[in-house]
Amino acid sequence: MSGILWGGAMLIEEVGEVQISGGTAAHFVFTFQGIDAFAGWQFSSSGQLNRREGSQSIAVLQEWWTNNPESAVGADYEIRAIQVSGTTPTGPTLAVWHNLAVARQWSLTRSTIGTSTCSLSISIRDVATQTIQDTATYNISAIKEN
Questions:
Q1: Rounded mean pLDDT, 99-118
Q2: pTM of this prediction?
């Protein structure tokens, strides 16, 4: 919280911050189900972080912006994913900064029997100062078995 002195009165202004903690998104299916395994992470422009597991599933897991979701907070930040290991995910170009004015998602899809996994180092930085606010590791696994 910060205060601004204006005309003798203290105006209280809530100040949020970027905070990410990492995690794992995994989707496991059997061939007879007739669907692909799909898992991923989506960072929204309002500060929400969604873990995606399966084509119909989006769960609000946490927020990357700690002062409750705000509709336009993403425009002030950029996100970058660096592949640490595994299969290259679908999503914005890796190792490049992308503005969070729109949602950014990295995911894996598995249509044949087997496992696809990857580990990403995700960083979020302030647009104005170019200062990295936080970095964490996010894992993705898409598994399809017979």
A1: 93
A2: 0.81
